[in-house]
Amino acid sequence: MTTTAPAREPAVRKDPPDVARGPRRRTGRLRRVTLPYLLLLPALILELLVHLIPMVIGVVMSFKELTQFYIRDWGTAPWSGFDNYKMSVDFDAPVGEALLHSFLVTVAFTLLSVALCWLIGTAAAIFMQDTFRGRGLLRALFLVPYALPVYAAVITWVFMFQHDNGLVNHVLHDQLHLTDKRSFWLIGDNSFIALLTVSVWKGWPFAFLIVMAGLQNIPKELYEAAALDGAGMLQQIRRITLPSLRPVNQVLVLVLFLWTFNDFNTPFVLFGKGAPQAADLISVHIYQASFVTWNFGTGSAMSVLLLLFLLVVTGVYLALTSRERTGNRSRARERARTGLRRRKETADV
Predict the structure, then answer these.
(1) pTM for the whole thing?
(2) For residues 283 and 271, what is the distance between their CA atoms, to the nearest angstrom?
(3) Are 285 and 96 in contact (CB under 8 A)?
(4) What region does 136 belong to: left with phi over 0, alpha with psi -120 to 50, or beta?
């Protein structure tokens, strides 16, 4: 009887684990490194096309004598150097004087609007911290001006500010008898009040939303301890709420300032192409200099000056706030060290 040995399977050559996994690890590492940049690439391309390239073109246009005669081929416009900038900052000339007036109006409008938006939004957010029936509905109603499209909201105010059949004159003159006659709100000096009213109405819900979110991070134990110590509501707001909201308010004020200073939609929809002198914001003024008088070189120079001003203000504001935060951290660390030394001294005694 013969036995047959089982056939051996052909030997399969196996690579060492490190050799087999090396290319896979490198591929996975490469994917992890490149994936975030690939995801950011569409946003970067859109940012380049929508903001950066037009910004560079605007800077180039500010150095050219670009008028309606060179619109078809603006590259052939003659080079004017800094003449457009000199004309814009020459406050004794009509162009510079008008720009200075528009700048001062914009500064006054921005300061009042930001202050009122922050004040109303903060007061509403603090009021909404207490639990009561209908709080959710009231929060939703507060956010309606912010949720509405800008054009729909401002056009509604245009009808309300009408001289003959507007709701504002009907309430102030016909119902409350606060004025001797119907007022013109969209022309004359009252246009500034109308513009400020619309800006605050549609801007304060944003401040309300941000401050309300910041209030959620303040521990309730602080208020309970303050109440046990006899602190009233105003003292709690001054000693606890406002200091705790300082980082939130620093960002909120900067965002409101930039939005309000650059606001174009509100005055344009409210007054049209020709804003009254009392409400001649710099955004509408630059639009008129560019697209109404067809002097794109001067309008571009004004836009560049506005950009430089906002960059300087933002840089100074961030420097001051960062220095304040650094000082607060240093004082906090010093108080902590002092407390530790006192505890050690007490323990030794």
Answers:
(1) 0.80
(2) 13
(3) no
(4) alpha
